[in-house]
Amino acid sequence: MSAARRPTVAVLGASGYLGSVLTGLLARRPVRLRPVARRAVPVPGGAVADVEPLAADLTEPAAVTRAVGDADVVLHLAKHAGDWRLPESEPAATERVNVGVMRAVLDALADRPGAGGRPPPVVVFAGACTQIGRTPERPMDGTEPDHPQTAYDRQKLAAEELLKAADRAGAVRGVSLRLATVFGQSPLSEVPDPGVVMTMARLALAGRPLTMWHDGSVVRDITFVEDVGRAFLAATDHPDALRGRHWMIGTGRHARLGAVFRTVADAVAEATGRPPVPVVTVEPPDAAVLTDFLPVYIDPEPFAKATGWRARVPLREGVDRGVAALVRRAAPAAP
């Protein structure tokens, strides 16, 4: 690719939690950056990239073609979680996003390989470690068989399989990153973290107890959002080493949720000067599913060896950053 031509990078789902952070990271690179979302995406301040925001409904194939038809790299983070705990009666609307958008992306790129001497475009998909279904009592390295337990995970797996098939056909260089729990607040984005860690931080700031559906022994791999964003950058930098496979993305460090929630309570206590709120066990709701009670161990070494990427931000540092961001946002504006 010539130095005079900036590669076009399309980010689908750029207004979301992870997508907005990834857009902020990409804005620091000399690329033609196209953040795509249903609503307008603000241009990051001080951008080195040429930023071309695009508002589009990605359930419309013509809109997908406008978004990715000329892209060198597509980072596919668009999703529709819906009520992801529903069984086989999952609404068709979620399938239109979770599978249909991938199908439309691949259709839009199908005629691209070899055009003008350009290599096949790179497509990096945001998968989920829960696609495996029943997780093993050991770190997952991506070689495990998949038996997804929810409609959402079945849809994510179906999209991933479409991407792998397109890679085998030579239409794209396809990479799927199966993400562990993502958390934290980044100064690159104003979009709040909707996940369990920052939800607990908001509860603690409100003085409310932190509740668990179990005894706190369930293990999770919890990865700071900027580290996950950097994993997507690493995938775009090493597509030929990664293509045609899915890769597990996490810290490789595993924390029990009881300890995580106590870390959140302590961080909020230090930030506010109040005593830590209690961490208590409650009965799980009827909507709880099997994967809520299974451990998640991640082995990120295969991805690290292929790309040089490693998670940098420890859990406590990430929690402290997130709590500080919540405190700043809650503070009254200066006169």
UniProtKB/TrEMBL annotation:
Domain NAD-dependent epimerase/dehydratase residue range list: 9-250
Stretches that traverse the bilayer: none
InterPro entries the record matches: Epimerase_deHydtase (IPR001509), Lipid_A_modif_metabolic_enz (IPR050177), NAD(P)-bd_dom_sf (IPR036291)
Name assigned to this protein: SDR family oxidoreductase
Domain of life of the organism encoding this protein: Bacteria
UniProt lineage: Bacteria, Bacillati, Actinomycetota, Actinomycetes, Kitasatosporales
SUPFAM superfamilies: NAD(P)-binding Rossmann-fold domains
PANTHER family: BIFUNCTIONAL POLYMYXIN RESISTANCE PROTEIN ARNA, UDP-D-APIOSE_UDP-D-XYLOSE SYNTHASE 2
Matches recorded under Gene3D superfamilies: NAD(P)-binding Rossmann-like Domain
